[in-house]
Amino acid sequence: MKRFHLTDRYALINFNASLCDNEIQIVSSKSFEMVLAQFIRQLRLKKDRTILEFKGISIHMIHDAYKLLLIYDYLDIDKKNTALTPLLHKRDAFYDFTENFYDYWRKLERFGMVIASKRYPNQSHANTLINESDQFNQRILNLYRTITQNIRGKQFYTLRQLPAGINANIALMPHKFSDESIYHNLQNVNYIQEILTRPPFIIHSKSNKREGLFREIKQNPLEHISINKLHYVTYPIKVGKLIAFVYIHRDFLHHGIALSNLFEPASFKDYEHKKPDLLYIYGVRENEFDCTYYKDLDQGIYMGVVSRADKNDYFGYMKKMLLTLHNIYSIDHKKLPIHGAMVNILLKNGKEKNVTVIGDSGAGKSETLEALRVIGKDYIKDMRVIFDDMGIFFIKNKKIYAQGTETGAFVRLDDLDTGYAYQEMDRAIFLNPDQLNARVILPVSSYEFITKDHLVDFLFYANNYIDTNDGITFFDDINDALMTFKEGKRFAKGTTAEIGLVKSYFANPFGPVQQEADCDLLINNMFKILYKDKITVGEIYTRLAIKGKAMNGPLEAAKKLLELITKDAS
Questions:
Q1: C-alpha angle with apex 221: 216 to 224, nearest 5 degrees?
Q2: For residue range 317-330, what is the model confidence (pLDDT) as tens digits?
Q3: Is the domain of 133 the same as that of 257?
Q4: Which has the closest alpha carbon to 210: 276, 109, 282?
């Protein structure tokens, strides 16, 4: 792995190979010069006035000045090094340039890497990640302050301890999971062992919405795609109870870091002696296998592939391909994928109820349950998220139980209570916060809790497009319920490429649509059990897509839901 890799959007630092022990090493390095040269090229392309004043002044002159300014007084350099006089006599312009250069560096996505020894695979690398990150951050700040104060000729009296080093630091270790020739190119890629992030962690991606469906192919794509092992890292995670190996191209590494807020990381002990259930290669060069998946039934591996096209630079492609693979695997193993939200509610009278709301993106399922949390504080002792987006139903002891897949939530900023995401800024990961469909990824539950067997007590379909004060209606006839749930109708709010009133089989384009016939049998069977056990099945009207009702709609629905739960548990 290279010492330093730089693009116009991000920088990767290999701390095992880079010399960053002090400020002199940093400012004297080829890496520092690369960032400086790239900054100057961009200023020249934009014909920025900052660089127009530096006509006749080379990159090497600026770099040499920085190296000297770290040690010597500004005026002494001007007297002793006449070659730098043309630059040093533009003191105000040089100061502005330096401030802009520092801002440019901080706007890059900056990632550190530490390669761990395979001799001690279960050893924690937390102290190394923390120390490397903190020390590098402080050295960059010291470098900036020393040089800028020297150019100004006076010290700063207000100091800001900004995250100026790296946004995230990851511990890596090579791993081999198979001797099969078809998987040869995926062996001994560096696997993420631990991640350290420095909040607020903000991702700016080239795309801000996901579009289309993932489709199955019948030939293993590894027969046709090339993998440069040095350009990928692998994040081993748990999607529900399945182990997934996520191969992430360095151009999409920011989305890999964001996975740490959404799924439970898998420890080395979890996968040391086993193959993955799911395998995802995110960011291949070839486009012919874009957004496809393949079932290697001989090896028991379900594999997804997404290309490195700019349109795929969005976290939705990371999350939804993983969930599609999980759901296809679940359907093949007689479990029903649920696209919705489910919470465990502990009432103050000591009784517990589990509520599931099914609906596609933008239906208002999570918003309604969050409104329930707010208005139900006099009756509800605790609410815990079982899943916020995807889970599974399964039959156990002739009853319907559920489990979740994710420990976090990937939600629109506009759909949260004002200020909520910023109250959680120390843990949140923000995605394009300045754009339409801005998102935030927040941890919401524990892995141990979401993977318990949770009995289903209430099941609702989230209707976001009918404007009614009913709040909730019930399906006395199982056929009416099946029709509504399978039809999967909603008004799309533009969170995906869809707009207007649309349908998606079982409100779930991530598995059930692809295997509708298999899923149909599971739905019919499980709904029969729900009705046999007299489980409440209904439709909840969130009115999230009704103009002027986006906030009050989920609130009114939550009031009806609270009445129903407290009455049932009385």
A1: 145
A2: 999 999 999 999 99
A3: no
A4: 282
